[in-house]
Amino acid sequence: MSLSRDERFARLRLARTDRIGPVAFSQLLARFGSAGAALDALPGLVRKSGAASVPPPVAAVEREQEAGMRMGARLVVLGDADYPALLAELDPPPPILWTRGEVALLNRPCVAIVGARIASAGGQRIARGLAGQLGQAGHIVVSGLARGIDAAAHEGALPTGTVAVLGGGVDDVYPPEHADLYARVVEQGCVVSESPIGARAQARDFPRRNRIISGLSRGVVVVEAEIRSGSLITARLAAEQGRDVFAVPGSPLDPRARGPNELLRQGAILCEGIEDIERAFTTLRTLREPPSQPLTYQGDLDDALLDRVAALLSPTPTPRDEIARALNMPVAQVAAALLELSLAGRAELLPGGLASL
Fold first, then answer.
1. What pLDDT sits at residue 346?
2. Residue 91: band (very low, low, confident or very high) from pLDDT cuts 50, 70, 90
């Protein structure tokens, strides 16, 4: 069943509402059945104990849509028929995606290649060659359009199709010297972003960008990366999402080999060529359980109950099951309380049923 034009607009507006991230978005949809109904109910959900989560004006959302249309971008909303199937399996999935290029590539078999921005010539050669081989074998290569390994992977996969996921808006070409590569990806592949049109990438945007890179892909290959790097964050997210994690080994003398070598110690799949990837994909493996459905609670929540739930939160992420056990409450009731606390700015909802201050 396709979404109506009004519901697609409401989903974009709900996704752009302050303090509503993917977790709150999914819970609101589950609780009220549609984004339109959730927007109508939002004022009543926000308590006097915190600032309101106010949806952006209709005119502001219309301006974002118009800006996307002017540049030939296409909005893909959770619930659309062409929303990427693998991404929809995430718990929770990104509510909306802006795209430029061939949207159908997002539903083709994808493999991500990520790695160091300051990459060695050898590392770039490996990434470019592996991307080309993956493309010839029918895979779409996904990366983040960054310097180094990302750029090499896109270059290698351009003839067969590649997907670039951005931290800023779908029109935010970064780094600037990749303007030509960006244009070729738009022409021969697809550029994707969860951020608003016109947004410039901030540090906080890259974990969300990395989550989409791994979420679109069946597996993630790390070519070069230092221990503390965004590439290893992408690998960790991939493992949490039930994706295969591959690592190209390197010399212990090169700091850029420490990341992949550490991943191998942690159980990543050794990748010396496409044969290792294809072998892993054809091996019968235990699949992760599908994501749980959002819990719904229709009863009333008074301020005293919200205060009791809030008192158990800390900066350390806490499972909502533990909060429910501590209060001897149904998990669905605690989930509803956490949702209202997040809308009031008193809690942060995190993937995996976690919450923090």
1. 86
2. confident
